[in-house]
Amino acid sequence: MTDATPTPEPPEHTGTSEATFGMKKAAQVAGISVSTIRRNKKRLQECGAEISPDGWKVPISALVASGLMRKQTPPDPDEGKLQSPLDSISSVERVRQLERDVLELKHRAELAEERQRSAEHRAQNARELVDALTETLKVERRMISSQFSNEKILDNKENVAEEKELESLDPKYKKSVWSRLFKSSN
Which of 15, 16, 116, 153 has the fewest CB atoms found within 10 Å of its own CB? Predict the structure, then answer.
């Protein structure tokens, strides 16, 4: 199906004061697509639209009656106003509700402060534990290094004692520098 009128028609005035539109203009006015107008051809005709070889003649009342366009009436001044749940409560009850809300918020704040103090306490304990473990590691390192150096000293003393013993047995005995170094490194 093609549109018989390539350009939108200006509103026509018949015996009534109601404006009529061509298919494209009717779609524009209603804020819908041309294909939606075509799909609803039968309903529009039932509501007063005329479709002739000269083109479509769709009055606004047909668009509204067919449900393709909402009725354009000024909004109710109180319609857009948001109703607060507090509007229906008496002033005394509102004050009581506000007092309860304040108490609830104070309680939540106290709980949050307690959680914060607890977290700070745990963090302090963790820092102290890390410091103690660090000190323990330092002491253990010193002990290990001193133990290692004591073992070296004992090994060296034993090596010296062995050499003196061997030299005392055989005065001609002389160890090479390499063999002494090799033995002392073991």
Answer: 15
* pLDDT tens-place string over residues 127-155: 999 999 999 988 888 888 877 776 676 66
Asked whether 21 and 11 are in contact (CB, 8 A), the reply is: yes
CA distance 75 to 69: 16
Q: 51, 67, 40: which is closest to 5 by C-alpha?
A: 51
Are 16 and 62 within 8 A, CB to CB? no
- Are residues 49 and 59 in contact, defined by beta-carbon separation less than 8 angstroms? yes
Report the distance separating Cα 100 and Cα 92, nearest Å: 13
Q: Helix or strand or coil: residue 18?
A: coil
Tell me if 84 sits within 8 A of 92, measured CB to CB.
no
CA distance 63 to 70: 8
124: Cα separation from own chain's centroid: 31
pLDDT digits (tens, 9 = 90+) for 84-127: 555 556 888 888 889 999 999 999 999 999 999 999 999 999 99
Query: Chain-centre distance of CA 21, in angstroms?
Result: 50
Tokens of 93: 């009850």
pTM as predicted: 0.32
Residue 57: beta bridge partners? 50
In angstroms, rounded to a whole number, what is the distance separating the alpha carbons of residues 109 and 103?
Answer: 10
